[in-house]
Design goal:
Elements lengths: L4 E10 L6 E11 L4 E5 L6 H8 L7 E6 L2 E2 L4 H7 E4 L11 H12 L4 H10 L15 H13 L5 E5 L7 H16 L4 E5 L3 H7 L2 E6 L2 E6 L1 H5 L4 E7 L1 H8 L4 E5 L2 E5 L5 H10 L3 E8 L3 H11 L2
Parallel strand pairs: 3-8, 3-9, 6-7, 7-8
Antiparallel strand pairs: 1-2, 1-4, 4-5, 9-10, 11-13, 11-14, 12-13
Length: 303
């Protein structure tokens, strides 16, 4: 299989000697064509550094990068033709309209085509505002024009670095829907770097979590969260319930309820154990942790 992105043993070291910073440390991953791939990590984890290396904006210290099976060192034309990116926000000329900004970017990149510019304006739903000056745009409008700029060359791979920064909840939702449309309707591969875990959880097919430049976990969201469900049990008296259950289950007492680390299938057994001991059971709820819960637990282990 030819992957849209293939990273093998990637390293990036800034500085030398005792002051050297290992920003990316032995990072390997593959992204299949057509996926929306989430790239997660706390600030300083190495996400932006990795993206800059993929785009050829920064050289790796060691390791290999391939785009669509081609080594990055041989991929200058491929980068121009098949890759689009929005990195560090949309930088627009405020005195030009959105359309004029796109025309300037297209001419600078050597891919000027009025029809394509009209198409990308339509894709990002900016037809009504395309001829307004950029200085009058909201942050969300600027981001949409930035994404349109990344699509001008009709790339197969689109790299988006924090595309929802500074957006309100409605703007975040609109960008999320746009990203899914790019993959599902326009058949793009998306590498999405973001710290908004709730949005990543809703839009991505697979995710990679990195910290301190290293890969921590990688997989589909369902795979990562599988087997981490737990039960919330409201019962009284709580002390007696703890005494009954603690020999059999890992549990945590939280205020007036118990958090029991176990499969949802054990709920009937737990209820029977408690009722047979004359403990009142008010509620048993199955909980599945969010990607945010998983991310915080995973990154905390590597601090």
């Amino acid at each position: 299989m030819t992957f849209a992105i293939e990273l093998t043993g990637l390293h990036k070291i800034f500085g030398h000697g005792k002051k050297a910073i290992h920003a990316v440390n032995d990072l390997s991953l593959t992204i299949e064509a057509g996926q929306v791939y989430g790239f997660l990590g706390p600030n300083g984890a190495g996400k932006s550094t990795t993206i800059r290396m993929i785009l050829g904006l920064s050289a790796c210290t060691d390791g290999n990068i391939k785009l669509f099976g081609t080594p990055l060192s041989e991929a200058k034309d491929l980068l121009r033709q098949r890759v689009g990116a929005l990195v560090e926000g949309a930088n627009l000329y405020p005195h030009l309209t959105g359309r004029q900004n796109l025309e300037v970017m297209a001419k600078t990149s050597g891919v000027f085509d009025r029809q394509r510019i009209a198409e990308v304006i339509d894709i990002v739903d900016m037809k009504k505002q395309a001829d307004y000056k950029a200085k009058n745009y909201s942050t969300g409008m600027k981001q949409r024009i930035g994404i349109a700029a990344a699509l001008i060359n009709n790339p197969d791979l689109v790299i988006l670095d924090e595309p929802t920064n500074g957006l309100d909840p409605r703007g975040i939702q609109e960008i999320r829907l746009l990203i899914r449309q790019l993959a599902d309707i326009h058949q793009k591969t998306i590498l999405l770097s973001s710290h908004l875990l709730h949005e990543i959880e809703q839009v991505c097919d697979r995710v990679a979590i990195i910290n301190n430049g290293r890969m921590i976990q990688e997989g589909t969201i369902n795979d990562l969260l599988e087997g981490t469900s737990y039960l919330i049990v409201d019962a009284a008296p709580i002390e007696k319930a703890i005494a009954i259950l603690q020999p059999h289950f890992a549990l945590i007492s939280e205020d007036s309820h118990l958090k029991i680390i176990t499969s949802p299938d054990t709920a009937p057994q737990i209820v029977r154990m408690l009722t047979q001991a004359n403990i009142d059971v008010y509620q048993v709820v199955t909980k599945k942790p969010s990607l945010e819960d998983y991310f915080l637990a995973a990154t905390e282990k590597t601090l």
